[in-house]
Design a protein that fits this description.
Number of helices of chain A: 7
Largest sheet of chain B: 6 strands, antiparallel
Number of strands of chain B: 17
Structural class of chain B: alpha/beta
Strand content of chain B: 25-35%
Oligomer: heterodimer
Order of helices and strands of chain B: EEHEHEEEEEEEHEEHEHEEHEHE
Structural class of chain A: mainly alpha
Distance between the termini of chain B: 62 Å
Distance between the termini of chain A: 33 Å
Number of helices of chain B: 7
Number of strands of chain A: 0
Shape of chain A: globular
Chain lengths: ~120, ~325
């Protein structure tokens, strides 16, 4: 059973995405990348990402991620920022009840997307 | 044959004049694809919302993860829908323009008129949605609806924008004039799914129009939970319909009206930025639904501040007024 399902599926992730997004908006290390962004649209994307990395339903191709983040490279998106996102991802999943092994597995999956996100 | 088509699935899709019988357990998405109709799709598992369509009375299971306003309008996820009876799909075409006649037009503030329009044809709407008003020479501008369908007219609050073509034209109308509109659009309206819910209505300037409609709509639908309406403006002279709001609140103990200005507050207004005042007045936000209307930048700030203070993103219904394209 996927981590997504084990943590409670869609209803659980609705609140989790809000928690994750609040962390992004208030973390000075990454907040600037969310300035001027349409909140509703952005939250929908974050939700799709969270669902995907926990084995939930959905497609998330490397090309989509690459295209979605391309403009941020110009604004200085780099490795430390990806680290921050993975950090918060782990924290939010832990709050939802995920164990350390599950969190590590998700972090590894997210890590595998680093190159796409940073346009490498 | 009796009853055979009433088991799980096997429903009949109606698209315009075309009918499509679903086979076995297939979903609306699968049925449409089988018929060669192009439908956007993605996860096919009820999450990505790419296959969202609209219909009269879709099956509840296909609406479960959508927010209340979308459910109320019949939106559903085609990949999750296994209707058993007839399901009439709505087309995604823009509604045709409707002619309206100006009933009344009155100044409610120095640069704001309240217009009441009587539609000549059918125009379905909910208080808080918006219409596109069509200037005779082409440009269109959006205005939110402050009235309820039961009122029998459409009420708009129009601020005169210096140099504004449509607002200038509207300010020059008199009773009996024709105004063409199209709509209604938007997701900023009341849904009576939780009568005890705490509602927070915050608006700047003519953002009061949709909020007035939503407040009256909620009350008329028997909303019992607390309703806090906060109207903000630059200074006290920019606030309007204060007596009317006070009268509305006097007749409904669950409704509280607050005013907020950036400067020049008297003892009848709070002074400060609208988002700061809103957070202060709102109290705990975890179980609140908020309607945020008015100038785009102000609404974005309100969204952000209230969200960070605990308002769930799914309970934020925003209607940012954006300036006309240059």
């Amino acid at each position: 059973m996927s981590l997504y399902a084990r943590l409670g599926g869609e209803p659980a992730f609705r609140a989790a995405v809000d928690a994750f997004y609040r962390r992004m908006l208030t973390d000075d290390r990454v907040a600037r990348f969310f300035e001027g962004v349409d909140m509703e649209g952005q939250i929908a994307k974050q939700k799709a990402f969270l669902v995907f990395v926990t084995g939930g339903p959905g497609e998330y191709t490397g090309q989509e991620l690459r295209a979605a983040h391309a403009h941020l490279s110009e604004r200085g998106l780099s490795d430390p920022h990806v680290d921050v996102v993975i950090e918060h991802l782990g924290a939010v999943l832990t709050e939802l009840g995920a164990g350390t092994e599950d969190v590590a597995a998700v972090a590894a999956l997210a890590e595998g997307l680093r190159a796409e996100v940073l346009g490498r | 044959m009796t009853g055979a088509g009433e088991e799980a699935g096997g429903g009949l899709l109606v698209l315009g004049t075309r009918e499509l019988r679903l086979l076995g357990d297939e979903t609306v998405l699968e049925g449409l694809e089988r018929a060669g109709i192009e439908v956007a799709s993605g996860c096919r598992a009820g999450t990505c919302c790419k296959c969202m369509l609209r219909a009269d009375s879709p099956p509840a299971a296909s609406q479960a993860s959508l927010r209340a306003t979308l459910r109320a309008q019949g939106y559903f996820l085609a990949c999750q829908a296994r209707p058993t009876g007839r399901l009439r799909l709505h087309s995604s075409e823009a509604p045709a323009p409707v002619e309206t006649v100006v009933e009344t037009i009155e100044h409610v503030a120095a640069d704001v008129v309240r217009m009441r329009l009587r539609p000549a044809g059918a125009l379905a709407f909910r208080a808080g949605q918006y219409l596109d008003v069509l200037h005779p020479e082409g440009p269109a501008r959006s205005y939110s609806i402050a009235s309820l369908p039961a009122d029998g007219h459409l009420e708009l609050h129009v601020r005169r924008i210096p140099g504004g073509r449509v607002s200038g034209w509207l300010h020059g109308r008199t009773a009996g004039d024709t105004v063409r509109v199209r709509g209604a659009f938007g997701q900023c309206f009341h849904v009576a799914d939780e009568p005890c819910k705490k509602l927070l209505l915050v608006g700047a300037g003519t953002g009061l129009a949709p909020l007035l409609g939503i407040a009256r709509d909620a009350l008329s639908q028997g909303h019992t939970g607390p309703i806090d309406l906060i109207h903000g403006g630059l200074e006290p002279s920019r606030l309007y319909l204060r007596d009317e709001l006070a009268a509305l609140a006097a007749g409904a103990p669950q409704l509280r009206v607050h005013h907020c200005v950036l400067r020049g507050a008297t003892r009848r207004e709070h002074e400060g930025a609208l988002d700061d005042v809103a957070v202060r007045l709102a109290g705990p936000l975890g179980e609140t639904r908020a309607f945020l209307c008015g100038d785009g930048e102000i609404v974005r700030r309100l969204q952000r501040t209230l969200f960070l203070a605990g308002l769930p993103s799914a309970e934020i219904l925003a209607d940012p007024f954006l300036p006309a394209p240059a």
